[in-house]
Amino acid sequence: MMTDIEIAQSVEMKPITQIAKAAGVDDKYLEQYGKYKAKVDYSLLKESKRGNGKLILVTAITPTPAGEGKTTTTIGLADGMKRIGKNVVVALREPSLGPVFGIKGGAAGGGWAQVVPMEDINLHFTGDFHAIGAANNLLAAMLDNHIYQGNALNIDPRRITWKRCVDMNDRQLRFVTDGLGGRVNGVPREDGYDITVASEIMAVFCLASSITDLKERLSRIVVAYTYDEKPVTAGQLGAVGAMAALLKDALKPNLVQTLEGTPAFVHGGPFANIAHGCNSVIATRMAMKLGDYAVTEAGFGADLGAEKFLDIKCRMAGLTPSAVVVVATVRALKMHGGVAKTELNSENLDALVKGLPNLLRHVSNVRNVYKLPCVVAVNRFPTDTDAEIDQIIRECRKLGVNVVLSNVWAEGGKGGEELAREVVRLCEEEKGDFTYSYELDGTIEDKIEAIVKKIYGGDGVSFLPAAKKQIAQLTALGFDKCPVCMAKTQYSFSDDATKLGAPEGFTVTVRNVKVSAGAGFVVALTGDIMTMPGLPKVPAAERIDVDEDGRISGLF
């Protein structure tokens, strides 16, 4: 059986100019990066007279080591829609090098449902993440230089909140001491690094609607506080123009293709467990501008990615999805029911029944909290039995939701045609009444509690003393009317990764609350969530190689 990278390398790609032409992108907007990838100038959004297509969100159950296949389903669904004659464009996140070399491997889909060139997308691509890291670190350098050069803004070095970043899982950099070596080498202080996808620059980049909006957001970023506890911004440091210059080209969405030649934008990629987990607003809008249907995804389970997509991204960008796909596998649901990964190949209806509440809670949230049309896509594995599939269908029907088997990993678009037809039916026949899970006029505590109770199914929230103090400060500064971005484990509805399925009777502990003023949201940190991951015992990097002809192997 071929690996994902072998499948991707076996398919002959079309020139990106051909993909662009089919998508309706005039040559004047196209900036080629080699033969198979290009950037599309954002001026297309202003100048195009075409109306917007319908937006489809693909999300998933709570992830497990068994895998769910959300990106694979997103790509296969789009290829399936193309096969049944629909004009469709995909919008996906860019993979971070951290997971690529760490535990997950590549993130460009799988099997016969992938975006290509797979190696480029998973590695340097068009340099967007490097630009984001450079902008982040320029701001850090200007901040420390300001203090070194006399500190006219009266910044308290103990209250610097801005960190440097690197797009690599590197636990060694979580806590560092820098500025050592005498006066000419800076001011000594405790510091640390984030992974690039956790940088607020990434969130700003993905939520900005234009260069002007980008600059306004960059100027609002809070980097430190003064000795008298006033916030200090990137705008006050005079860093905004140079940061925007670094990001100018990166802000243009990247156009690539699926294995079946469907146009796909891959652009931006904040993690959903520590940031808002969605590709850029500009890429989503461009997909909607070019296609009658735009298919996009949000990171991790629906309690994280979909919640942030709907409560943050859609609210800020004025987007309303027409349908939501919740991806599940029998294998993952059995893991939520307590089965070990090594025992998943055997039929186990008892475990499936125990794990199903996880899927049903996600589906109920989409239907009853956000009031959106929904379908469940079950990624079928050869070991799944008819009895297990029937059990899922019966339970979902009780919620008024259809279940469609998806075989896109093995068959590409052909295996996604049935799902495509159901998604089109939802878009055309079922009208949602899109509602957020909370309103902005409540307190920070109210919003966090609404997410915990309505989306996670918890009993309430415990705020540690540090979090209470931070909330009081942020409220005094006027940030209490922002949406909330929850930083939480992706492996459970709760803040405890060991609580699988659909746990009840739990409280979520919020230990820290900080503002991402440029992004426009408040971040609530729960559990032991970290903004700089580490590599596993056996990193995926150990399997990656390149031969004499430049052909890469082992990416996935």
Question: Could you explain the architecture of this structure?
Answer:
There is one protein chain. This protein has 556 residues and is an alpha/beta fold. Helix content is 36%, strand content 20%. The chain is built from 19 helices and 25 strands. Strands 1, 2, 3, 4, 5, 6, 14, 15, 16, 17, 18 and 19 form a twelve-stranded mixed β-sheet that branches. It is globular.
Question: What attributes characterize this protein structure?
Answer:
alpha/beta, 556 residues, 25 strands, 4-stranded mixed β-sheet
Q: How many DSSP helices?
A: 19
Share of β-strand residues:
15-25%
Oligomer: single chain
Mean of all residue-level pLDDT scores: 93
Spatial gap, N to C terminus: 13 Å
Low-confidence stretches: none
For the sheet with most strands, the description reads:
12 strands, mixed
Give a quick precis of the structure.
The chain contains 19 helices and 25 strands.
Topology record:
Blueprint: H1 4-10, H2 16-23, E1 30-32, E2 38-40, H3 43-47, E3 54-60, H4 70-83, E4 88-92, H5 97-101, E5 109-110, E6 113-116, H6 118-122, H7 128-148, E7 155-160, E8 164-166, E9 176-178, E10 189-191, E11 193-195, H8 200-207, H9 211-220, E12 222-226, E13 231-233, H10 240-247, E14 254-258, E15 263-266, H11 281-290, E16 293-297, H12 302-317, E17 323-328, H13 330-336, H14 349-369, E18 374-379, H15 386-397, E19 402-406, H16 408-411, H17 417-429, H18 444-456, E20 460-463, H19 465-476, E21 484-487, E22 507-516, E23 521-526, E24 545-546, E25 552-553
Parallel strand pairs: 3-16, 3-17, 4-15, 4-16, 8-11, 17-18, 18-19, 20-22, 21-23
Antiparallel strand pairs: 1-2, 2-14, 5-6, 6-14, 7-12, 9-10, 12-13, 14-15, 22-23, 24-25
Helix pairs in contact: 4-17, 7-8, 7-10, 9-10, 13-14, 14-15
